[in-house]
Amino acid sequence: MPMAEVILRGLEMKRESKSFTDSLYAVLTGAGLFSGPKYRLSALSGMAFIFSVHERLLPLSVTAYGEWGTVHKRAADSLGIFTVTDAGRTRHPTFKKYQQDAVKWIKSSLDRGLGAVYWLPEFGVIHGYDDADRIFYVQDGYSAESKIVLYDNFGINFTPFWYAQMFGGKVDIGEKDMVLEALRMALDDWETPHPVPPNRSIASGRKAYSYFIHALEQGDFDSFGAVYVWDAFRGSRTEIMYFLQEASLMFPGLQEAAACYEQLAGMMEQPERWTVSANGGRTLSQESIPALIGVLKEAEKLEERAMGVFRSISVQYPDLKRSTVPRWGLHTAR
């Protein structure tokens, strides 16, 4: 029988990257399923390379990178981690049944010492439960204090959908194989113009640059979202830089790509140069927008060069995942 109360003390989520990456890192390191810096997990899972932008730079850009079940399962698979996801719309008549089932399997996961990723929004970590009060304890990464989610309110939030993910055992994947897959996931995302078709209000990869630049040029954008997207972009490109500096030791050809990201990261230093404080938050400085557009145009060129390096390395090695059509995955509509 499951325990009446469980709290995973060794699990701590901190907001430093994409919220899903922060959550995944907290769960896996807390359970001893991953060791190493967060930037390495971010890159090896493919999450660091994801770049998605809404045409008006809405804050949702950062998490609007495709079907989460597909993208997040890919992230865990690439690390050799077993995972199960469930999600849906809270308006569906079957929601209550799925909700009750999810409460059971998340408690089972916690009993085994594994937290669960949960959409708050954004993503957070369920790290405990108490049957007496019928509550989950949730970390959002912004505060050391846990949030409380009633079993009866599980999955209900101000967005129309719910999402949860748990993890299991691990298989060993060779380090070089993981790096190669990270490069290939980067190429997949770079060449995918719209991550949630047929919706074209959101662009990804190469196309995301044109959306970002166009919004700034037109001046029709969400001021908070612009800074939020910019911060996420800066953070992920720095993660990629650190990852490639390490990976270059295994694939010397990656040194050119690492140099591209080093140059890119150097262009984005001093965030105060681009933003000003306004109404208790930050917004883009109007005076900095022309320079920021120039930085984005140069960054796109640098990433295009880096992708060329990834492509030249990838073709030197067999890629069974993409040369063999699987039942599900990248060969099906997302």
Summarize the structure.
With 334 residues, the chain is of the alpha+beta class.
Fold and architecture overview:
- The chain is α+β, with helices and mostly antiparallel strands and 334 residues long.
- The chain folds into two domains: 153 residues, Cysteine proteinases (Cathepsin B, Chain A), CATH 3.90.70; 145 residues, no CATH class.
- It contains ten helices and eleven strands.
- The strands form three sheets. Strands 1, 3, 4, 5, 6, 7 and 8 form a seven-stranded antiparallel β-sheet that branches. The chain has a two-stranded antiparallel ribbon with strand order 2-9. Strands 10-11 form a two-stranded antiparallel ribbon.
- Helix 2 packs across helix 7 and helix 8 packs antiparallel against helix 9.
- The longest helix has 26 residues.
- The chain is globular.
- The two termini are 39 Å apart.
- The model has no long low-confidence stretch (mean pLDDT 93).
Helix/sheet category: alpha+beta
CATH topology of the largest domain: Cathepsin B, Chain A
- Uncertain regions: pLDDT < 50 for 5+ in a row? none
Oligomer: single chain
In what range is the share of β-strand residues? 15-25%
Reading the helices and strands in chain order gives EHHEHEHEEEEEHEHHHEEHH
Number of strands: 11
User: DSSP helix count?
Assistant: 10
Basic shape: globular
In percent, how helical is the residue content? Answer: 40-55%
- Under CATH at level 1, the class of the largest domain stands as Alpha Beta
Spatial extent as radius of gyration: 20 Å
Mean pLDDT: 93
Head-to-tail CA distance between termini: 39 Å
